[in-house]
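Methods: example folding runs. The two proteins below were folded one after another, and each record is reproduced exactly as written to the output file, sequence line first and structure-token line second.
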Amino acid sequence: MLGARRPHSSAALLSAVLLLHVQAAAAVSFQVLAPSGPLSAPLGGTVLLSCHLSPTLSAQAMQVKWSRLGQDVHLYLPDGSEVQGERYRGRTELLRDGIQSGSLVLRIRNLTLQDEGHYLCDFQSDSTVGNATLELCVTSSGSDPLLHIGGYDGKQMNVTCLSVGWYPKPKVLWSNGHKERLTPSNKEKISRNQGLFDVSSSVVVTEHSDPTLICAIIPSSPGPEKVSAILISDDFFPQVSSWKVGLFLFLSVCVCLLFLPACYLWRVQRAKRKSSNLTTKK
């Protein structure tokens, strides 16, 4: 009879071991990892926010939520359903390709300036909760600089550099044809239009300045700078050539040399006329 009971005892032991393994797996702790540096994406573009578990675990039966400033962005539920946040409705998509290995990626489309900030990625199992933070920076590359000449008084002029549609606020750098840094004539002017920055800056140009001016708009975030250049024509500051000055002096001397003998001869002739008139009267 004892021998007949052994298979049941073995089965019970095996079931107990399996139950312990299941409970241990359910109680496994994990960490949530995310990119440490800020992510940059263009205004109106698309960004991918990724989080994954360490050690590698399946997140299929977990709840995963992305949120920002306490507001839900996108929610994944253990039954496989999803809920989009109200502000992000129609703009988010969950990429589940790596869900079995604990990796989920949230795609956000049509980015706005209001989407910039810190996002919380939260994983929750029956026994463990973990989260990580991601930073998103939204950028906008403005227009090519427009150079405008004004305030010309014959001796100097103002050259203004204008560029619009930047985010975040850019810097303006002036240089000449020799790559020497120039100092603006006044502090750069910055205004905001629908959240984007418009910037303008001016330099003073005189007849002694390098005729080549270069205006560069330098973004504060990673991205290409925008550059425009202008060549100031000599017509703005007419200069008399040295050979013209020499010719003028030469002609002036010649006129003087011709004028003095002519004046002398005129006086001689005048004296003779007076003498002749006196003789005739007598």
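Second run, written to the same file directly after the first:
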Amino acid sequence: MALRKMDNTPVEAPMANPPQSQMINKDHESFTKKILMVLMAVVLVYLTLFLGTLMRNNLKKYRFIGQAEQMERTFAVNGVGKVTGKNDVAETTIGFSNTDKDVAKAQETNRKVMDPLLKELKSLGIGENDLQSNYTIYPEYDYTPERGQQLRGFRVTNNIIVKIRDLTKVTAVLALPSKFGANEVSGLNFTIDDTENLRNDARLEALADAKSKARQLAENLGVVLGEVVSYSEYEATAYPYSMNQMTFAKEGVGGGGPTEIATGSREVNMGVTVVYKIYSNQSW
């Protein structure tokens, strides 16, 4: 039964509270709107920065239209270095060559000469790594119009390249051909076994020469010398100085070898090219 006031007007019933699900939906919609507004603000900021950078770059391009691009200012100088070192190694070749119609006999004859000679070289302190043999066998022919080509025999040649590190043994080595009957002897050459230290010293001289030239050139041009931009080097041809003097006994090599030897020296030359950056006095 409906309630009525004393004047018989109906009394309104109190309104019921809204359901909880409706309140949650409203809160979710409000949070989503806030997130969207933040994202839009972030995008707007990045878009503003992008447009600003693009405009600045376009302005820079416009500023340099019709102007040449500024080139890096450099100059290059060359330097040379030369170091002389004393020769410390000698090389010579000793061998024996013979022929026989029987190739086995030719080999045996050759071995009788070269085997004891090789043994004597080792007894003088010449190491295995400093001995290199060149052994060949080939037929030799005679030719006549009547008989045509006729086999004369087989030539056996055994040459040994000898590297002498102890230069006091040079005379003894050169005396061996006459002692054992070797019939092939080459000239004697002197050189430096390891030139790396000489190259390093020559390189330092070349760099010092280049730097001195660069400083003088910068002073003459009225500019400031900057850092090194590039560097290159090359080794110039080094001419070894062979023995300057070599005197033999009256009977030649067969009489016991040379009595006086000058080993000489060798030059090592290095060249460098250095490119320096330079600055004007105002911009430095």
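Comment on the second run: Residues 56 and 62 are 10 Å apart (CA to CA).
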